[in-house]
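Example (one chain per record):
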Amino acid sequence: MNREQELTRLAQQWEELTIANDRMFSMVMENNAICRELLRRIFPELAIDRVQRVTVQKQVNTPLDARTVRFDVYIRDDQQRTYIVEMQVANRQNLPYRLRYYLEQVDHSILGPGDNYEKLAGYPTYVIFFCDFDYYGQDRPEYRFEWRNTDQPDLTAGTGQQLVVFNVQASTFHDKIGGSKFPQTNA
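Predicted structure:
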């Protein structure tokens, strides 16, 4: 293959990339303005003014014998709220457990040795997964979860944690994220 053919092939690969590609997702999410707009669309009730820190592929330090996590995107806004944004293109049938572990790992990045647990009150956390599959099988564009009393659903546990799972294959997903089209993947 000559140089011109190779350049043509690379240009074609670039044109075919979607946000579901790990590198493309990271490049897009490194832009503070894009992150802020995405978070504003997901959480309009939070009135997010600005994001202060965006880190892609953030490694969380864990004990040596624990499973490590690398967050696709770690975001902190001007109100000290923490957002983890993940892209999942393959359904490995473990989404609820992955969500659980990610929530726990976010707190590791906030609470240090000797810190009082009340410190967590100042750092609400949101774990957001964009999935190229419908794990819950209800064709909903969005599934939101937080800790609630099973007998009295209006009573929350007050942990300041929320899980949001987007199903980009839902028939109404594009309407949910402000009308913008989310690129389809071939996964």
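Caption: The longest helix spans residues 3-16.
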